[in-house]
Structure formats: C-alpha cells, structure tokens
Amino acid sequence: MSGRTIGRAVGALFLLAFVGYGGGSALVESGSGTADALSGVLDHRLRISAGALLMLVNSVAVAGIGVLMLPVLKPRHEISAYAYLVGRAVEAVMLAAGVVFLLLVVPLARERADAGAPDASVLEALGQVAKEANRYSYQIAMIALGITSLLFCRVLLRERLVPAFMALWGLAGYAAFLAGAIAEILGYGVGLVLSVPGGLFEVALGVTLIVRGFPAGPSPDRDGPAGDVSPALR
C-alpha cells in the first residue's frame, strides 16, 4: 500500500478506536453505574454486553494501528517502529483483559440473585474487584500507549509526516496522558482531565490522516549523504 493509503487506513482506525471505546464505556457505565457493583446489572445485561463488544472493537483497532504503522515508521526509525508496535499490542491485550473483567459482573449478578444474604455480600465484593481490575488494566494500557506514542510523535515531527504543530500537540498530549495514568495507579484521580489533550489529538490526527495520508518516501531534508545513515541510529 502507498503511504497515502496507509495513512487513511490508520486515520480511520484512530477514529474507530475512539468511538468504539468511548461508546462502549458509556453503554457499560449506563448499565452498571450504581454504587453497588452488581445492582441493576441483570436488568441491563444486553446493554453491558453490547458495550463490551464495542470496547473489544477498540482493541482490534489499536492493534491494527500498530501493524499498519510499522512499514511507515521502520524506514525512518526502526526502534521507534517496533516499540510502537509492541506498545499498541500491550494496549490491545490489556484493554481486552479489562473487558473480560467487566463482563464478569453479569454471572456474578446472576449468582447474587440466587444466593442468600451472606453469599450476596461476598459476590458484591467480587463485583467491585472485577471493576477495579478493569480500571487497572486500562491504566496499564494507557501507560504503554503513552510511552511508545511519545516515540511515535517524535518520528512524526522529525520526518514531517504531519504538520509540526500537530506532532508537538501529540508529544504534549501523550506526556499528559502518561502522567495521568501513573497518577491514577498511585491513587490520584486526575487521569480523566489529563487525558483530554491526548484524546483530542487522536481525533484530530485521525481526521488529518484520512484527508491527506502520509507522504511517500523520506522527507526532503533526509535525502543525500545523511540518508545513508542507518535509521535505527538516528
């Protein structure tokens, strides 16, 4: 595929990932957003299951981004290319694991409906644990995304694959994303606020790539003798 075609495909996947996880999370939250982990789950299990499937679409999309970006990044900086692929793979796996934890609330709620009072309290606690496991899986995925996306945006900037202001926006956004995810694991609830710049960047990048794709070949200032240097050593 040409750079333009790959760029458009990557842009579409960025938007698909954003809509998939955002929409899926909203559906799951609307079906199980009560103070008690298992209250109302059985009444909204179809909504929760549909939301979980949308969230799995996000995992497929982010893995696809890593695969499609490999031939674009590798000629320009091999280490960054493979790091980004691994980072996106870790993100996809951890987010999928989080979805599995979320789905556990459905059988737990079913068991609680059939259980006596003592067992019900234990099952409620397990439901809370499942939700917390999903939250930690998400934050670990965001740490992997934040670290490797800094390398990704560095290549975007150096090689002029997107406008410079957009690459700088990405660097700042993913740095904030990474800080927010680490803060959430440490117990500081600032992750949502710090994720806004990075989230908006991914939407803007998706639209930009759909419109223009990636340029073919190296940037003009990479031609000549300097272009003979191994990309991995730059």
From TrEMBL:
Pfam families: DUF4386 (PF14329)
Domain of life of the source: Bacteria
Keyword Chaperone: no
InterPro entries, sorted: DUF4386
Regions crossing the membrane: 53-73, 85-109, 136-157, 164-183, 189-211
Keyword terms: Membrane, Transmembrane, Transmembrane helix
Protein name as catalogued: DUF4386 domain-containing protein
